[in-house]
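Consider the tokenized backbone below.
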């Protein structure tokens, strides 16, 4: 009887491990089926004592078109468009909204507090970050986040100094859509960035003209 119970427990553990291990590959499979998408992104990020809370409208179309508009927080009314390459066309909010500038995608005027570019919130960019091999991945199951059943992928960064001092990167993936719901990053035990992906609409049929 003891051997039977042990075998049953081991089988359950293996099955659970297999289920969890599929979360990241399910994300990759789901992303492969996405041609374009829109979403809202809410972010909270810190650098030392500086804090930035923002909301964005974000749109992406494969292979290389993205648009982001700051809808709340510092820089509200600003936005950028990317159509491949190392530059973006952007504008600031307020009285400068009508003035468009072409700047480097890493220009401080086009990045967040922590220096993330507008592509940092792209699901493709997130997938590539977790495929980069810069950390050790593990998976688990979380009950719900924002009312959504979740699988969790955690990456422990091997060299934080080469990754903006981030030592842990955690991705919460919907068990329904297999796309990201939340991403959080830590320096040690300190939360330095959280992104929530809301109202995700997959394959709405965006056109090239939506990114001009």
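A designed sequence for it:
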């Amino acid at each position: 009887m003891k051997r039977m119970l042990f075998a049953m427990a081991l089988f359950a553990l293996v099955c659970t491990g297999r289920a969890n291990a599929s979360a990241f590959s399910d994300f990759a499979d789901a992303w492969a089926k996405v041609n374009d998408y829109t979403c809202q992104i809410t972010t909270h990020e810190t650098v030392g004592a500086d804090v930035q809370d923002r909301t964005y409208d974000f749109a992406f179309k494969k292979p290389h078109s993205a648009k982001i508009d700051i809808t709340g927080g510092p820089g509200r009314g600003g936005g950028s468009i990317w159509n491949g390459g190392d530059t973006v066309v952007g504008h600031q909010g307020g009285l400068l909204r009508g003035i468009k500038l072409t700047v480097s995608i890493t220009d401080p005027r086009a990045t967040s507090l922590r220096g993330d570019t507008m592509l940092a919130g792209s699901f493709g960019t997130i997938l590539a970050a977790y495929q980069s091999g810069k950390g050790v991945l593990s998976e688990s199951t979380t009950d719900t986040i924002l009312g959504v059943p979740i699988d969790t992928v955690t990456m422990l960064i091997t060299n934080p100094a080469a990754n903006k001092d981030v030592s842990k990167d955690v991705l919460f993936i919907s068990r329904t859509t297999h796309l990201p719901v939340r991403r959080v990053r830590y320096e040690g035990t300190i939360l330095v960035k959280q992104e929530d992906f809301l109202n995700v609409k997959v394959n709405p049929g965006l056109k090239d003209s939506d990114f001009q």
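Helices lie at 2-32, 123-131.
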